[in-house]
């Protein structure tokens, strides 16, 4: 079995801790600034209360501010110079503004640092995940997790989580001053809190499931859009624009409907909480006024109490919004956790490989358990050429996926130079095997960029030499911009044959000791096919070459040919030997060679 890098699974807290590395200082500065702002915000009502009761009114309360008033000449002096209190309030407000700026500045710096680390970690991790993982997950969903879900986590941490520390201080200080001011009124105020908190907990459990469903359906919507844009040629060729629009609209309507239901549910909750908070404020104002009339508290104390209650109810009323965002962030953390907890392939330093390639009794099954390969054995001596022929689904490409360690070998062994490939790091295998797929993927950029992307420090001369070997140099020079021609997304401006040959050039420029062509000459005519094989024999004669094709002329000159059927080797030998057997190879040969010359050229057959 394939050896993979083992690691402990991330918990939700573990994922947050992992992504927050390097951001703690910035978030700490933001939290500290927030706490200073909060403390000063709590002090202000006390100053206002003292001013109302002692300076405006004639009653001097038993307050710590009486001591400070004595430092300025006493209460009588402050009455004559009330501007001193006004300046004190302004100074506190200015200090609060400075620290509030610190909250915003450090928070934004921390948020950007967090997002940068999350993107880098996710992208780097995804690059190391095995091919099977990528096949099992839709591309649109992966993109959605790395964008929308990452944003949800970042926004929650930089906004709600930092705000949570402030809430804790506000609640503790507000309740403390409320009970110090008037125990009875504080008890009345707290009677409303359990209802608000209880409803928030109920909302949390329900909202979490709803947000998870919304995120999943957003992933489906992203996948539909991504597949449509990727397959735009197919859509246009078959005139399926209306079908694609209807499919996207159907999913979009469903996704939008889910969000409308969630937002309706949350809006009802927010509105109910706001009404309950307004009712509580009205009750406190009425009861507090009665307490003032009966001398159970002073007007200044009532003003301070109402201020502290407003501070308290603010976080309580925001609790629903925080829980709503917490619900979505929790879902997003879980979805990103599924990516981060996926086992990476084992990677190491790339080394050199050489020697014979040998398959010994190799078998393989995909997830459904249905065997794709069964008891496959053959040997490819170093420097020789192997041809693989077979119908669609016979297992030709799977053989090469196993050789390149894109899938783990589940039965039998594959060796290179006598060494089991499961004991060779994937980086070493893939740096020594040049793999050309039938449908070569081209990146948005120039032709030169698409060829040189295969390695580091590849010169323009090497790029052009590889293009000549792939018989595409003349085509490239025929473009107005030559090698600087922009090919568009997925090489949309090039023909199928040109894309294949650019892909071949990209592989040849690496000069690997093993070359695999997975039906990658299917889109070129027979003359170009023969020319490419001639250049390979001339310039890469020392390389081990494996040619997979449905075309007899592509494989007939190979040192050894295997014919695959139903996941097993039906025939094996040289072209001459296989022709003598009058089996599958002979049937394909006779069929292709009996075609009229015009048809041979049209479909790509012929010598």
Automatic annotation (TrEMBL):
Molecular-function annotations in GO: ABC-type oligopeptide transporter activity; ATP binding; ATP hydrolysis activity
UniProt GO cellular component terms: plasma membrane
InterPro entries associated with the record: AAA+_ATPase (IPR003593), ABC1_TM_dom (IPR011527), ABC1_TM_sf (IPR036640), ABC_transporter-like_ATP-bd (IPR003439), ABC_transporter-like_CS (IPR017871), P-loop_NTPase (IPR027417), Type_1_exporter (IPR039421)
Main location: membrane
Keywords: ATP-binding, Cell membrane, Membrane, Nucleotide-binding, Transmembrane, Transmembrane helix, Transport
Membrane spanning stretches: 21-44, 82-106, 161-180, 186-204, 276-293
Recorded topology in the membrane: Multi-pass membrane protein
Highest taxon, organism lineage: Bacteria
Cell location: Cell membrane
Domain ABC transmembrane type-1 stretches: 29-328
Domain annotation ABC transporter: ranges: 357-591
Database matches in Pfam families: ABC_membrane (PF00664), ABC_tran (PF00005)
Keyword Membrane: yes
Entry annotated with the keyword Membrane: yes
Protein name in UniProt: ABC transporter ATP-binding protein
């Amino acid at each position: 079995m394939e050896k993979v890098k083992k690691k402990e699974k991330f918990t939700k807290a573990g994922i947050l801790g992992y992504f927050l590395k390097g951001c703690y200082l910035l978030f700490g500065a933001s939290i500290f600034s927030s706490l200073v702002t909060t403390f000063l915000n709590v002090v202000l009502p006390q100053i206002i209360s003292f001013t109302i009761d002692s300076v405006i009114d004639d009653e001097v309360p038993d307050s710590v501010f009486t001591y400070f008033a004595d430092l300025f000449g006493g209460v009588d002096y402050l009455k004559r110079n009330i501007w001193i209190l006004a300046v004190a309030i302004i100074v506190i407000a200015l200090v609060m503004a400075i620290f509030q700026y610190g909250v915003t500045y450090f928070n934004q710096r921390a948020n950007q640092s967090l997002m940068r680390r999350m993107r880098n970690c996710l992208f780097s991790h995804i690059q190391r995940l095995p091919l099977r993982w990528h096949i099992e997950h839709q591309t649109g969903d992966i993109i959605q997790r790395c964008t929308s879900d990452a944003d949800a986590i970042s926004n929650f941490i930089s906004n709600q989580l930092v705000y949570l520390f402030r809430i804790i201080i506000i609640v503790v200080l507000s309740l403390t001053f409320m009970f110090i001011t008037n125990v009875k009124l504080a008890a009345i105020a707290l009677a409303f809190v359990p209802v608000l908190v209880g409803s928030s907990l109920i909302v949390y459990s329900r909202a979490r499931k709803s947000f998870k469903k919304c995120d999943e359906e957003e992933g489906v919507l992203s996948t539909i859009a991504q597949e449509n844009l990727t397959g735009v040629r197919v859509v246009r060729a078959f005139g399926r624009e209306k079908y694609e629009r209807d499919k996207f609209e159907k999913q979009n309507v469903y996704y939008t409907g889910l969000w409308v239901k969630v937002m309706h549910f949350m809006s009802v909750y927010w509105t109910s909480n706001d009404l309950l908070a307004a009712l509580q404020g009205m009750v406190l104002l009425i009861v507090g006024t009665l307490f003032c009339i009966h001398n159970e508290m002073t007007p200044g104390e009532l003003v301070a109490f109402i201020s502290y209650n407003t501070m308290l109810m603010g976080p309580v009323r925001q609790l629903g919004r925080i829980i709503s965002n917490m619900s979505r962030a929790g879902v997003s953390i879980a979805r990103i956790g599924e990516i981060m907890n996926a086992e990476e392939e084992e990677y190491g330093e790339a080394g050199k490989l050489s020697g014979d390639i040998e398959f010994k009794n190799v078998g393989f099954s995909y997830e459904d358990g249905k065997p794709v390969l069964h008891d496959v054995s053959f040997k490819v001596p170093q420097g020789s050429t192997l041809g693989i022929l077979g119908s669609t689904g016979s297992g030709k490409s799977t053989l090469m996926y196993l050789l390149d360690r894109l899938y783990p070998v589940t039965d039998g062994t594959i060796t290179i130079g006598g060494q089991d490939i499961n004991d060779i790091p994937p980086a070493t295998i893939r740096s020594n095997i040049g793999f050309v797929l039938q449908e070569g993927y081209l990146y948005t950029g120039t032709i030169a960029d698409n060829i040189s992307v295969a390695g580091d420090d590849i010169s323009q001369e090497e790029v052009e030499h590889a293009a000549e070997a792939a018989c595409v140099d003349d085509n490239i020079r025929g473009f107005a911009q030559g090698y600087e021609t922009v090919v568009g997304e997925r090489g949309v401006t090039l023909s199928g044959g040109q894309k294949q040959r650019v892909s071949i050039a990209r592989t040849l420029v690496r000069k690997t000791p093993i070359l695999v062509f997975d039906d990658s000459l299917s889109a070129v005519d027979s003359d170009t096919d023969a020319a490419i094989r001639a250049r390979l024999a001339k310039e890469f004669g020392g390389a081990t070459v494996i040619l997979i094709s449905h075309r007899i002329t592509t494989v007939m000159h190979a040192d050894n040919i295997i014919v695959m059927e139903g996941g097993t080797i039906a025939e094996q030998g040289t072209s001459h030997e296989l022709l003598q057997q009058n089996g599958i190879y002979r049937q394909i040969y006779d069929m292709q060679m009996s075609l009229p010359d015009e048809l041979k050229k049209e479909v790509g057959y012929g010598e």
